[in-house]
Design goal:
The protein is mainly alpha-helical. It has a single domain, classed as Orthogonal Bundle (Arc Repressor Mutant, subunit A). The chain is 58% helix and 8% strand. It has seven helices and three strands. The chain has a three-stranded antiparallel β-sheet with strand order 1-3-2. Helix 1 packs across helix 5 and helix 2 packs across helix 5. It is globular, with a radius of gyration of 15 Å.
Length: 156
């Protein structure tokens, strides 16, 4: 499992070289795009990124103008996270290369078995039943789009 994950990350890094996003940052941007205005707690559950790492990542992406953080009206303790226009452009610019990396990762698996593999991996990611990575229906990984040959780009 570890080697498979490392291969996926390596392919992502090679494919997106120069785009300015790490694999985890791309995952975060996809999650934010899938549910604009989500709390940091919801993003922890959707991405599987631990709270302290996620908080640091959001801070850096806010500083770069990619994300915007605001207080929730109904709970002033909660931060809501949205993509800025710059973030949307960066995600759309990076998505084709990320999908290509996912296709390369899945290449050894026969096409008719890819959706099954992704469903099984999502099941493993959500063994505690909290919605985890399954809460994005695969969007955080991008693998569903790669298995089906579709894009996860975010409309402007």
């Amino acid at each position: 499992m570890r080697r498979g994950h490392q291969r996926a990350v390596d392919l992502f890094v090679q494919a997106t070289r120069g785009q300015g996003l790490t694999h985890q940052q791309f995952t975060l941007l996809q999650a934010v795009a899938a549910g604009q205005g989500l709390s940091q707690t919801a993003l922890v559950h959707m991405t599987g990124i631990d709270r302290s790492t996620l908080t640091d990542m959001i801070g850096r992406l806010v500083d770069r103008g990619v994300l915007k953080r605001s207080r929730a009206e109904d709970d002033r303790r909660a931060n809501l996270i949205v993509l800025t226009e710059k973030g949307r452009q960066l995600l759309n610019q990076t998505t084709p290369a990320a999908l290509e990396a996912d296709r390369a990762f899945l290449e050894p698996i026969p096409p008719e078995r890819r959706e099954e593999l992704i469903a099984l991996l999502q099941r493993l990611a959500d063994v505690d039943g909290d919605g985890g990575a399954d809460g994005l229906d695969g969007a955080a990984s991008g693998l569903n789009g790669a298995a089906q040959g579709t894009s996860t780009a975010v409309p402007a």
